[in-house]
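Most newcomers find our protein records easier to grasp once they have seen one. Nothing more is needed to start thinking about how sequence determines fold. Here is such a record, shown just as it appears in the course material:
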Amino acid sequence: MSGLQCVLVMLLMTCALAMAQLGYVAGVFDDPAMANATLTYSEIAYCGDYATREYSGAAAGFVYTYEFNGLHENQGLMGYNPNDQTIYISFRGSSDPQNWITNLEAFQKDCPASWNIAGCGVHKGFFNAEQDVIPGIYANLKSLMDKYPSYKVVVTGHSLGAALATVTAADLISSYGVPASKVTLWNYGSPRVFNEAGSVGVSSMILSIHRVTHHKDLVPHSPTHNMNYQHIDNEWYEDPTADVVSCTGYEDPNCSYKWAITSIKDHLVYMGLDIGEAGCGWV
């Protein structure tokens, strides 16, 4: 290898490292800027100090407006960003994913009648936790939508936060009348939330979904099919090199679903960045 080639290789490696530190993806998300933003807000939800922190990187310009706290580590923040004209609702994930998978009540209950999905079943623990905070979330959201009627609404979260974001997006549309055309869902490492009827109905209800999974992440495999659970659609699967694949259907056998042996380690890294309490340094 010539000296010039060595320099070029080093420059490429340096650039790749810098991009990873900024949250840029190596794959093919249809909206890389929103991928970077939602991962950033999902991580910020773990880190607290929402009212006093300096928002930078993909969250530069964010204006914090509201913090919510509820059942089962149900915590997060809301606000808006004039730079991308978006209102963000971000749920915190669990500090101990393996613990809440085991202990959080996984029985199903009927979805609200307002959702108008025949046979819909939803994870009782996730739904009850969401119901604990949704009145405050909607009150703040309505105030922001009145001030910024052209802004879109993005609901996001990682892990347990991803499940709560999914229920919240569906509830805002069906129970609170937020136009489906305004609502976008980005979640990372989400467990299954609904039965088959609920999965199909909610996937039709939320017009813009990005359900991001990473390699052998354990959490998307819980709760199991034999407990009568199925994922919502529009999975985006991140392979070990951080390349991203747009998957098909609800449980694409070529994406996360193909792995029988899973890893909690893969749950705690997305887009090459630590996600969870260990990632608070990069935000």
